[in-house]
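Internal tracking record. Fields below are filled automatically when a chain is submitted to the structure queue. Please do not edit lines marked as system-generated. If the sequence contains nonstandard residues, flag them in the REMARKS field before resubmitting.
Queue: standard
Priority: normal
Entity type: single polypeptide chain
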Amino acid sequence: MSTTARVLIGLAVGVLVGFLSTLAGDDFAARLAGIVAPVGTLWLNALRMTVVPLVVSLVIVGVADATSVASAGRVTALALGLFVVLTTMVAIATALVAPAAYELWPGGAVDPGALARTGQGPVPEIPGFGDQVANLLPSNAIAAAASGAMVPLVLFALVVGFALTRLSGKQRTPLITLLRAVADTMLVIVGWVLKVAPLGVFALILPVAARTGSDLIGAAGWYVVIQSCLKVAVLLAMYPVAVGLGGVALADFARAAAPAQGVGFGTQSSLATLPVMLDAATQRLAVPTRIAGVVLPLAVSLFRVTSPANTLGAACFVAWLYGVDLSFVQLVSGALVAIVIALGSVSLPGQVTFAASNIPVLLAMGLPLEPVALLLALDPIPDAFRTAGNITGDLAVTTAVARYDATHTAPAQGPISDPMESAT
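SYSTEM-GENERATED OUTPUT FOLLOWS
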């Protein structure tokens, strides 16, 4: 049985037991919740303990790798620039749209008082704008890590990543190797924690279900709808990119992208869809192989255009669930971390990606982490749309780079020969 199926079973059993416990009286439901809740907290802490070393190591290595790739040529530098611009635009749009979208739910949010009575604690108080600006860079990186201050910690990792590129290869390589090992080790731990995710989801959702009743089911369904719509909106926004920047006819791009979108929707893996994307780019969109062969693998590794919509959308749902009116400072903090996480993470399995991407954004915005279990269980449907959107973005950027390269390459230069052909 897949991890997704087991997590969904844990969610369903937790909701069912939570509802049934209320039939025995509020006292019984409260005692049962008090017994189960510590197990959920323990599981959540096991996930949270990996966040700081994982995020710091991924961001530093990601910046160092991206900078090295950008220095390799004009094509890769242009692709990376488009990755950053489009990811930033998606983050801004999500921050503007998502909070209002959740408010459209006709049933209203779950009673925040009921959530507070589950023992999950109040939402932390967010510092003012002036304090946020003053603390953008940590005076003590260790203290920032210990307190879970994600925005200054991520900025510190960015600075270290760029500084690392200024060192000689002899100095840089051992540190990058160490950081890769740290990231890989944290991912192994995350994998272990996710093996017992059904138990963690059960233990976290039971107290909430016991207090909120059917409101939780309606809110969960609304989350799936909004998250899926956000991913579809990003997917559709990539068509004008292909038309405007790539110079491709809308119908041609739609026909070329459709097979890759279908495979991505089914597999929920951009990496598994890479061969289909290469065929779509070279055979259907007439992108030179030397361009598609560089940009598409780079995009699969670094470019997840729907990631800010996923992480910020989930954070806005948590805020709505708890009745929190998100401030400008919170949205900016969340968007900043979401952008860096999107560009600094790697192509991981869905559940690992979700945990490693969403927890830092929730921490940056000062929101509770307990709903992560619920969001993880509900993620499979939005994840399919997320993959399809990422694939569409990969193809759109590839057409844009190809068009730019064609207009800035002298005719006398001719195509760059394939090294494998030269060898034969």
